[in-house]
UniProtKB/TrEMBL annotation:
Species in which this protein is naturally found: Candidatus Scalindua arabica
SUPFAM superfamilies assigned: Actin-like ATPase domain
Domain (Ppx/GppA phosphatase N-terminal): residue spans on this chain: 21-299
Stored InterPro entries: ATPase_NBD, GppA/Ppx_hydrolase, Ppx_GppA_N
GO MF term set: pyrophosphatase activity
TM region(s), chain numbering: none
CDD domains found in the cross-reference section: ASKHA_NBD_AaPPX-GppA_MtPPX2-like
UniProt name for this protein: Exopolyphosphatase 2
Lineage: Bacteria, Pseudomonadati, Planctomycetota, Candidatus Brocadiia, Candidatus Brocadiales
Amino acid sequence: MLRASIDLGTNTCLMLLAEVESGQIKKVSGDYARIIRLGEGVDKTGSLQPEAIERTFECLSEYYKIISEAGILSGDVVCVATSHARDASNGEAFFDKVEEKFGLRFRVLSGKDEARLSFIGSLLPGMDPSHYAVLDVGGGSTEFVTAEADRSVDLGSVRFTERYLKSDPVTDEEFVECLDKIDNKLEELAGWRSSIPADMQMLAVAGTATTLATWHLEQETFNAAEVERVHLSKGNLQQMVEDLKSMTVAERREQVGIEPKRADVLLAGAMIMWRTMEKLRFPICSISSRGLRYGVLMDLGFTI
């Protein structure tokens, strides 16, 4: 049957339309992504900002039209929200308004549920779940997940850009401070890393990872099949970080493969990926274009 899911994150709003059978995605009918930056300013103010709310309503209005034309009822769409919603004081009022306007009922995921469902949805066909650790760098938090153990850390591309990378271009002092804060956060993962096999392979998902892959490939048009064949080394990531640091945001927007609306937070996201590989000892990083929006449709035990 044709089903739909919406993943409303700190930075992006994603929607998947797919035929699902026995917990497996059989055919993707539509896969949509919009950068809406709903979490803009939440780390500083504790609440969702009016401009961010307006951008999100515009996106959801577009998505509502698509699912209606596909014959899917609003009440049958699995809608989930992540880090920004857990942090915002006015999050509940926002989601009440969304339900009133579109009939879309959002479930705010715990970090643990977000990690589990992202893991389920991220694995590519043929991947053995026991061999992979999924890294999901979000705008507000980052999930570290295996089949047996997971962690969610308040370490995100939007959150750390707003906190530490305020100049354009970034100053050396800002860069060093941000790097130090990332490394400090990653120290919390020492127990998680020691609990999994040393040869566990890293699989990165979400917009930071796919954007770095498209930039690496110099893709003018996104091609998921090519992106999912990319393997990035620690050296690749370090070089990307150094290159991004030397550019202004405007210069990043001109790079082939970089989504212009992600250019301002991509450095922080790349730093998180690079330091994760370095501090947690992952030599190679594979890329998945899938993720949470897949997982909530595949998990038969997950309810709307």
